Amino acid sequence: MKSSSGFIRLIVTTSLMGILLFLIFGSQIKKHIEEKLFESTYQFFLITVMGGGVSLVYEAYRRECESQERQKEIERESRERQKEIQRNLRSTLIAAYHDLKKVRRLLRAQAISLEPGTGKLERMIVWEEYNKQLEKLIDAELSIEEAVRVIESEPKLFQHSTSGNTESGTHKQLVDELIKIKEYLNEVISEYEQSYKTFANCSVSRNLSELPKLLNFIGSKDEAKGSNTIFWTPFHTVLELLSKVLQN
User: What's the confidence (pLDDT) of residue 98?
Assistant: First the structure.
């Protein structure tokens, strides 16, 4: 593009110089060449060279405009791709959040039974329901792991700007909060893995007190000590940060 522009400038400059020479020194030039040749040469500079130069300038301008428009389109597509990644990630995490709340509620409602033979209400975890709901919890945890990978692979997509300033730590905060959630869920999953054989081979239910990580997840406020700080609050923080990122 630079070489083409230089060539165009050379042509236009040459034609202008030729026209100026004919305008300034026309009478002297006529003395040395025939009048028809003088007129033909003047017309050549004025129409052919100058006109061609103008055409070349216009063509270069048109190409430059097209190039700029293509670049803008590429940038628009890139921004849309980035927004799509951000929206998909937020949608995935919202779905995981809702799934985990559903798992907790279903475990509370369906996995607790009466202690066999006593009629007394004891919080006994029924294996079948426990197994089914923990599989869903594992799926949600895997979604969170994938979210961490996405953010770490493209940190620039997860920055929050305020008043023209970019908060470079946003993606790190997102990762840190998601890791808190993941580690909390991993404790519940590890307990499930450890109790799997005992549950499957020996009984259809176990006392909830034997599963402290699960108790912390589905228990009352007193029983779920710290779960808000290390699980639910981080989730809220992540979703709020992603909303701000999408507003950029």
Answer: 95
Find all residues with CB under 8 Å of 101, minimum gap 6, and list them.
none
Residue of higher predicted confidence among 41 and 105:
105
Q: Which of 61-75, 88-102, 124-138 has the lowest mean pLDDT?
A: 61-75
Strands (E), the chain: 112-113, 124-126, 160-162, 165-167, 205-207
Q: What are the CA-CA distances from residue 130 to residues 59, 72, 229, 231 (Å)?
A: 72, 54, 24, 20
Residues 6+ apart with CB under 8 A from 175: 148, 151, 152
- Dist. CA 190–CA 118, nearest whole Å: 31
The stretch 56-66 carries a mean pLDDT of: 77
Residue range 182-200: mean pLDDT, rounded: 88
Task: State which fold the 81-246 domain adopts.
Answer: Four Helix Bundle (Hemerythrin (Met), subunit A) (1.20.120)
Q: Is 218 a residue whose pLDDT tops 50? A: yes
DSSP label at residue 221? T
What integer pLDDT is reported at residue 51 of this predicted model? 66
Compute the average pLDDT of residues 30-55: 63
